[in-house]
């Protein structure tokens, strides 16, 4: 027959067991911030869904300027220079990274078979650049347009060789459609701040700056 422990002994054993379990549960949380991130104060840019309209076939003209598709010029909407840097958690440029963006035209259509091939052929719609030595990138795009169910946004992807480091979406600060957009609403406050960008007038037209931080 097993001996019955005195109540005080059972309490002591239970307390030690609860302390051990608590230590196991709490310990992993202490490792959520990497040393590099803690030293720099940088946090990774939040990821979002790629969506259904990433090009199945990349256009022949896939450079930084989405307002020129080959010999065709796109006159619709408000041109914007979208620029920023790509850095790692320590703030170092991610040398060799490529940044891609894609967006709909003024009619809300993408260059994609799933969108019925209705996109304006004058609009390149997709661009890709390799970041500079300082991590900088720059695109000439348009202030994004809304379409049914979505607030204005620009899709963005970062690759390093065969690795996909980030897929996300960029939103326009102050756009009235943001609070009605299910993806924008799903973000926390800090995530919204990271992905929602001011499109401000500048010497070359609208300017939008979007710094990117990736765990490279």
* Number of distinct helices: 4
Poorly predicted ranges: 1-33
Radius of gyration, whole Å: 24 Å
Helix percent reads 10-25%
Shape descriptor reads globular
What name does CATH use for the topology? Protocatechuate 3,4-Dioxygenase, subunit A
Number of domains: 1
The CATH class designation is: Mainly Beta
Q: Overall pLDDT, averaged? A: 86
Quaternary form: single chain
What do we call the CATH homologous superfamily? Answer: Aromatic compound dioxygenase
Strand content: 25-35%
Describe the sheet with the most strands. Answer: 5 strands, mixed
Q: List the secondary-structure elements in sequence, H or E.
A: HHEEEEEEEEHHEEEE
Q: Which second-level CATH architecture applies?
A: Sandwich
What structural category arises from helix and sheet content?
alpha/beta
N- and C-termini, Cα separation: 60 Å
Please provide the count of β strands: 12
Describe this structure in words.
- With 216 residues, this protein is an alpha/beta fold.
- The chain has one domain (39-213): Aromatic compound dioxygenase (Protocatechuate 3,4-Dioxygenase, subunit A, Sandwich), CATH 2.60.130.10.
- The chain is built from four helices and twelve strands.
- The strands form three sheets. Strands 3, 6, 10, 11 and 12 form a five-stranded mixed beta sheet that branches. A five-stranded mixed beta sheet has the order 5-4-7-8-9.
- It is globular and about 45 Å long.
- Residues 1-33 have low confidence and may be disordered.
């Amino acid at each position: 027959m097993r001996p019955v422990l005195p109540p005080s002994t059972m309490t002591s054993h239970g307390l030690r067991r609860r302390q051990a379990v608590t230590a196991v549960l709490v310990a992993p949380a202490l490792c959520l911030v990497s040393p590099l991130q803690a030293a720099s104060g940088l946090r990774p840019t939040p990821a979002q869904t790629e969506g259904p309209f990433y090009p199945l076939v990349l256009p022949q003209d896939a450079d930084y300027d989405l307002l020129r598709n080959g010999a065709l010029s796109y006159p619709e909407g408000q041109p914007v220079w979208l620029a920023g840097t790509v850095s790692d958690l320590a703030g170092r440029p991610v040398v060799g990274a490529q940044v891609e963006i894609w967006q709909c035209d003024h009619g809300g259509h993408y260059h994609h078979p799933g969108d019925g091939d209705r996109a304006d052929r004058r609009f390149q719609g997709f661009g890709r650049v390799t970041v500079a030595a300082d991590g900088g990138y720059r695109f000439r795009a348009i202030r994004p347009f809304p379409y049914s169910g979505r607030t204005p946004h620009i899709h963005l992807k970062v690759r390093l060789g065969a690795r996909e480091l980030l897929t996300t979406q960029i939103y326009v600060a102050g756009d009235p459609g943001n609070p009605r957009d299910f993806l924008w609403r799903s973000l926390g406050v800090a995530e919204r701040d990271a992905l929602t960008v001011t499109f401000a007038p500048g010497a070359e037209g609208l300017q939008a700056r979007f710094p990117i931080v990736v765990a490279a």
